[in-house]
Known about the structure:
By secondary structure, the chain is an alpha+beta fold. It is built from nine helices and 18 strands. The chain has a six-stranded mixed β-sheet, with helices on both faces. It has a five-stranded mixed β-sheet with strand order 12-18-17-14-15. The longest helix has 15 residues, at about 105-120. The structure holds zinc ion.
Amino acid sequence: MRVRTPLVTAIAAGSLAIAALGAAGTTSHAAAGDGSGTRTVEYFPDAHGEGRHAQVATAVPDRITREKSAPAKTAAATTVTPLQRTGPSEGRLDLVVIGDGYTADQQDDFTADARSKLDAIFAIEPYKSYQGLFNFWLVDAVSNDSGVSGDPTRDVVKDTAVSSYFFCADTERLLCVDEKKVDTYAQQAPDSDIVFVVSNSTKYGGAGYSGLTSTAGHTGIATMSSDHDSSYLIGAHELGHSIGLLADEYQYGGYGTYPGPEPAEPNTTKQTVDGMRDTQAKWYRWLGQDDPSGGTVGAYEGGGYYEYGIYRPTQNSIMRALDTDVFNLPGREAMIAGFYRDADLLTARTSTARTLSASSTLRVDLAPLPQGLSDVRVNWYVDGAEVRRAEGLKTLKASSLGLRKGTHKVTAKAVDRTAALRDPAARKAATNSVSWTVSR
Ligand SMILES: [Zn+2]
């Protein structure tokens, strides 16, 4: 929930590649979201395949928006439901789900559809083990029509809250939205880190927008159709970009050799296995390990849209194709590190703002992580020295810490020692503490 660096690297790589090959007719020429430019979005032409990118106009075409009601009016009266609230927004990832193409009578359908998408995504590791670091906000956007534009055919136009439409950029499975309307609705939620738009449709489709700037705060939007049972994978993949800062592990035929510098993303590299070992770079700590995606972690050529001279960690993964829902080990580590960049394990329940007395009770809350990948420890310190007997406590009397006369700094620290993290920097991100001043 802190300000993140937008995913300009992934987007830039995609735009560059597309522009270079002339695969799309336009190039980006305006700032994102000003209504006059274009943006690169990701989509999946078939439900079990690799992704593609397209340049789309940020403005929704006139044929979709003509004679439509003003969205801001309805947004003001929108209902926001906390489907899951595990802690304060400052210490959580806030995922906002907006329904589109649901009329006033269909809001229960939206709730059920949103739940089923979230259930499916959060059955995948590492989302499953770390669901407790998320808040889920459902925004009941009321549409005048049921269903969305472009379903079932291109000529179908529906009047919906955020103007979802298939056949975006003449691509049937590309389900675009009006980013500004999404922003208006997302602002109704207490906080917005990532937005899912669930569009009322049985047709397969979706889109990933990353590197956004929005008033609501989110940097990514994933769209997905509500009633196709594979569309949730689009959301699961897109969070890989926005939370894990992961690259796409697929390639385009004809792109040839990767021309750039060492990629910034943690799951692509120009180095071979020996190179990674020699320089202790990228996913060297995982090389040779059995991977949950099948096979072993190594350096497989092709990724980041290029065919040669760039490597990915495993043969397949959810960042390569949606015929699997598995993150490989380096991807999983990057996701968990990403969760912890934006969310905190430990939050103070007793205010840290004032000096406490020895008779005070100190309380902390831990994010409710289920049994799974995590391995959370809580430790207490007085002036930096650990008080071993307090290990694991979430509530204690300051006097139980054996304070001498004077003013002390009491610290509670939580760390996730999960074996899914091997990088010390990631472990550091998985550590957080709160401190009080206690006077005796
Ligand atoms: Zn992608």
